[in-house]
Amino acid sequence: MKKSVSSVLKENTMIIVLLVVFLFFTWRTGGTMFSPTSFNSLITQNAYVYILASGMLMCMLTGGNIDLSCGSVVCLVGAIGAFFMKIAGLNAGVSVILMLLIGIVYGIVLGYLIAYMNIPPWIATLAGYLAFRGLGTAILSANSTTGSINIGSEQGFLKVFSGKMFTTKNNVLNVPCITVGIIAAILVVLLNIISRATKLKKGYEADSAQSVLIKSVIEAAVILLVGYKLAMAGGIPTVLIWVAAVLLIYHFITDKTTIGRHFYVVGGNREAARLSGVNTRRIMFLAYLNMAVITVVTTWVVLARSQAANATAGTNYEMDAISACVVGGVSAYGGSGRIFGMVVGATLIGVINLGMSLMNIDANFQKVVKGVVLLGAVAFDIISKRRGK
Amino acid sequence: MAKILLEMKNITKTFPGVKALDNVNLQVEEGEIHALVGENGAGKSTLMNVLSGIYPYGTYEGDIVYNGEVCKFNTIKDSESRGIVIIHQELALVPEMSIGENMYLGNERGRKAAIDWDTTYAEADKYLKMVGLTESSKVLVKEIGTGKQQLVEIAKALAKNAKLLILDEPTSSLNEEDSRALLDLMLGFKKQGMTMIIISHKLNEVAYVSDKITVVRDGSTIETLDCHGSEPISEDRIIKGMVGREITNRFPKRENVAVGEINMEVDHWTVHHPLYPERKVVDDVSMYVRKGEVVGIYGLMGAGRTELAMSIFGQSYGTLTAGTLKIDGKEVRLRKTPTDAIKHKIAYVTEDRKGNGLVLSQSIKVNTSLANLDSIASRTVIDKDREYQVAEEYRDKLNIKTPTVEQLVGNLSGGNQQKVLLAKWMFAEPDILILDEPTRGIDVGAKYEIYCIINDLAAAGKSVIMISSELPEVLAMSDRIYIMNASKIVGEMKASEATQENIMAAILKSGRGD
């Protein structure tokens, strides 16, 4: 299949926008944007967005449904987790599992309300949005005079969810990190080649060798660049492992599995899906159960990064996750959107945040820019697609 | 000779890559009913969209001469201000609003910002009377039936001072009685001097109302037939123009296949309405289908045919209160889910392909594999290459016209969409197929292909139940026919004994229900 240059550009609009924005900030910050520290910050600061947006994407696929409660759940479960570890004196591992169980219980209740009692998702989760932050704050103020519980002494917990692996000094090449980067790059290239080879072997239509080559080179270059930058910034951020695992799992689910396909068709036409034998209620249930679990994973990394549970934890996280999905091309009506798109969207927002901070732009004005970017990105995407028709 | 009201000259409209209209010419005389016929995708709707300003002046080539003037419409408002009003196939009424509110939507009566509701309702009532509706204009649209809603659409058009009324498939969702009433209304308007253009697939209706028939094929006008000429225009004559060749037979010949054992049987099947439990939508129905047999269920719209089919299909509609279902002689109790029905090798091919049949935003490939996704997946991981291969296989088998199976189903014509829907259910490998209005809204050529598929299915030993409200189709395609009226089966006959007359007689004899 031969694709014209313009159609390739059209399909990858957001990547090009990301590239331009990145170059713009690199220029405006005199190269600071391109420094190893910036790469490290991009990942550690935005880890929660990548993870949370993976769950949000699943909800949005089912028909533009969202979860407004996840930010407040991060606050509540974080407070409970910190309470378990510091006040109740439980072992960190046990606390982590208890946090997960609380998330699962919430997910089951929420999923039941939405899927089997037909309560509109945004109303069901709006209730959680209001209630859980209140509850979380109440737990914190009842157990601490400062309104926050410090978990800085839980070394085991912090090590699993934050910090760096095989730490070295900055600006010294971290060998384990670059090795992982090289292996990842080789794997990606190999996968591309194998996929094409099996297609050809079975006699199916495959992309031309040229386009596979170009794709592989670009992908490997990006991975190597990130790997090199992180290696110069002291090593692999532990949270990157969590992010990568979540992204790979959800990419696999949405792209390759029957259950993932069911999410798309339920969002595309729920009645048609039902009459084709898809258990649509179960899909809705799973979407919100999954979202609750993902929210707990987010809580772990957020709690470990801030080393404390406090009342403002998770504020606006739901909006960040929704923005990442929407900018990344996930349909607000459901039925379409990919993990890769979401990653590009989340990265774009992250780059803009970081870039503006590096430029010392006023925080209030930053919000204005983010709002404009959100709308602009979606409008741009819609217009470029319309031209394509 | 009457005055020419509208003349469209050498209209050419191109979309990127496609020439939708190629030098089309259309002449409509004042006070006539002019029919526009052609296969799906022939360009009828595009032509009407050019006329009504949906495609503004400058996006097409050629001239529109209306009332002796060259018109340059930029929006639909421009054409409406000149009295050209189009009524689209899909009803565009807001169910939660009153008839009056709907009629003046975007055309509100009153001064400046304030709407004058008294004038609105008084004027609305006047126009409703003209179309023969006795309802008050304050009644909510959702409370009247589809037939009456169509009349409201016409009243709405009249309220815009229509001089040239364009009706796009006005009867596609109406039963025969309502259709006839609508056509008679059109003839009544003609007497009062109204000019109308009707787009329709139903050739008998076209022949009934039209003065002239223009045939469109592949974006060009082929011919204009005069219905008041020396000899009457036969349906076959129109079809010849539409498909560009003589169709000797509109229905493929049924091979005499050996009909086997009884495959599925329902007894005393009674289903109640999901929202009004006191209302029976299927009343004590008993029927069966043999292997290799095509059983037709004929009935008017609202007779309970779809309800019967969907209730058999895993109780996907209504509440079953009595009755048994036997498959191969053994009673089965399906759980209340289509999944269970599919497991028992039953397929229900819906009448509403866009509403609950296809996922329009997904590709042909995804739609084809949907009902049997597990068969091409191992441990829930989809074999995408296999999926592609399956989609290709059905594209070939059913002759789905598309450049690639990655094409979104929403971009296909009605006939091709119907084929994708059939492909989905054929891939599910059912033994019993319930086809609900399998040829609704598709053109003659595609219909013939669908008939061939049905014959092939029966020849392969499948049991086919075909629900239809087109009598000729039921008569030609079935081995045996059940006649349904007012939730009940009111007759059963072999196709060899059935005629239009005795089928209609069975319905009339059963009374109009209640």
Q: Brief description of this entry?
A:
With 389 residues, chain A is mainly α.
Number of domains of chain A: 1
Query: Helix tally of chain B?
Result: 17
Which stretches of chain B are poorly predicted, pLDDT < 50 over at least 5 residues?
A: none
Oligomer: heterodimer
Query: Can you give the mean pLDDT of chain B?
Result: 87
**Regarding CATH, which class of the largest domain in chain B?**
Alpha Beta
Unreliable runs of chain A? none
CATH top level of chain A is Mainly Alpha
User: What's the architecture of chain A, going by CATH?
Assistant: Orthogonal Bundle
Q: What would your notes on this structure say?
A:
The complex is a heterodimer of chains A (389) and B (514). Chain A is mainly α. Chain A has one domain (2-167, 235-388): ABC transporter involved in vitamin B12 uptake, BtuC. Chain A contains 16 helices and 4 strands. Chain A is globular. Chain A starts with a helix and ends with a helix. Chain B has 514 residues and is an alpha/beta fold. Chain B is built from 17 helices and 24 strands. Chain B has a 6-stranded mixed beta sheet with strand order 6-9-10-3-11-12, with helices on both faces. The chains are: A mainly alpha (389), B alpha/beta (514). The interface between A and B is medium-sized, with 27 and 31 residues.
Key terms for this structure?
heterodimer; A: 389 residues; mainly alpha; ABC transporter involved in vitamin B12 uptake, BtuC; two-stranded antiparallel sheet; 16 helices; 75% helix; 3% strand; B: 514 residues; alpha/beta; Rossmann fold; 3 domains; 17 helices; 24 strands
Write the layout of secondary structure elements.
The complex is a heterodimer of chains A (389) and B (514).
Chain A: H1 5-11, H2 13-28, H3 36-61, H4 70-87, H5 92-115, H6 121-143, E1 148-150, H7 155-161, E2 164-165, H8 175-201, H9 209-232, E3 236-237, H10 238-256, H11 258-268, H12 270-275, H13 280-306, E4 308-310, H14 317-327, H15 339-358, H16 363-388
Antiparallel strand pairs in A: 1-4, 2-3
Helix pairs in contact in A: 2-15, 3-9, 3-10, 3-11, 3-13, 3-14, 3-15, 4-5, 4-6, 4-13, 5-13, 7-13, 8-9, 10-11, 11-13, 14-15, 15-16
Chain B: E1 4-15, E2 18-29, E3 33-37, H1 44-52, E4 61-66, E5 69-71, H2 76-81, E6 84-87, H3 99-103, E7 110-111, E8 114-115, H4 117-130, H5 146-159, E9 164-168, H6 176-191, E10 195-199, H7 203-209, E11 212-217, E12 220-226, H8 235-243, E13 262-272, E14 280-290, E15 294-299, H9 305-312, E16 319-327, E17 330-332, H10 338-343, E18 346-349, H11 353-357, H12 364-369, E19 377-378, E20 381-382, H13 384-398, H14 414-427, E21 432-436, H15 444-459, E22 463-468, H16 471-477, E23 480-485, E24 488-494, H17 500-509
Parallel strand pairs in B: 3-10, 3-11, 6-9, 9-10, 15-22, 15-23, 18-21, 21-22
Antiparallel strand pairs in B: 1-2, 1-4, 4-5, 7-8, 11-12, 13-14, 13-16, 16-17, 19-20, 23-24
Helix pairs in contact in B: 4-5, 13-14
